[in-house]
Design brief:
The protein is of the alpha+beta class. Helix content is about 55%, strand content about 20%. Among the domains are: about 70 residues, no CATH class; about 100 residues, 2-Layer Sandwich (Tetrahydropterin Synthase, Chain A), CATH 3.30.479. The protein starts with a helix and ends in a 23-residue tail after the last helix.
Length: about 290
Amino acid sequence: MEWTRKRITTIIVGVILVIVVLASWPFVIIGAGERGVVLRWGAVQDKIFDEGFHIKTPYADRIVKVDVKIQKSETKASAASKDMQIVTTVIAINFHQDPSRVNWIHQNIGKEFKDRIISPAVDEGLKASTAQFTAAQLITQRPAVKTLVDEFLKERLSKYGLIVDEISLTDFDFSTEYNKAIEAKQVAEQNAKKAEWELAQKKVEAQRRVAEAKADAEAKIAIATAEAEAIRVKAIAEARAIEIRGEALRKNPELVKLEAVQRWDGVLPKFTGGGAIPFIDVANVT
């Protein structure tokens, strides 16, 4: 029984010694991407421990390690556009705590700076930026919107020792009514483009028909002209032939008799009232 009490006493003394040693341990190591906020008797000190090995005041000092590496915060926010359309988006921010102000942040904001500072700033920055654009411009000019939000957040968060490295905006979501209106507009534009295309096709077809009709008319005119010219040439040739033949007959009377003979079919003309056959002078036949 006495041995048991001694063992318990030894354990208690050992624990107390460990606590005393740990409490009085003066050495502190600050890791990469960290800073140490010095609390002396619970009060935040101006001195900040950088990365590496440090010595603190035993019992009086307590070191709070703070992460100063880049962190990510996502905030879903809604705002109104210039034409009073509600737009919703998610803004992702890459940021880090200013290493030279971690003691001020710990003292004035604490660890809940995302909810206390970043989210309200994102909401306000989005509203201030989207109010300068119409809903259609928010879609077509998103880089300009992003720039405004980025500038707003950098200025606002820097007041609280938070440095913005980069922001990104997801796709803008609009109300169901606006989406339906956009869809109807797109359908109307597509129908208008289709109508324009069909009209252009009709114009091309009409132009083709006009060209074909013009070509057909020109072809008919050409054929008629050619036929008229052929008739004219033929008439001139026939008239010239008659002229030449008449000239030849005038110069050669014997040809008249020869032609009469060639034209006679060998049948004598018939007369009534007498039995004698009249004599026909072939020379007088013309």
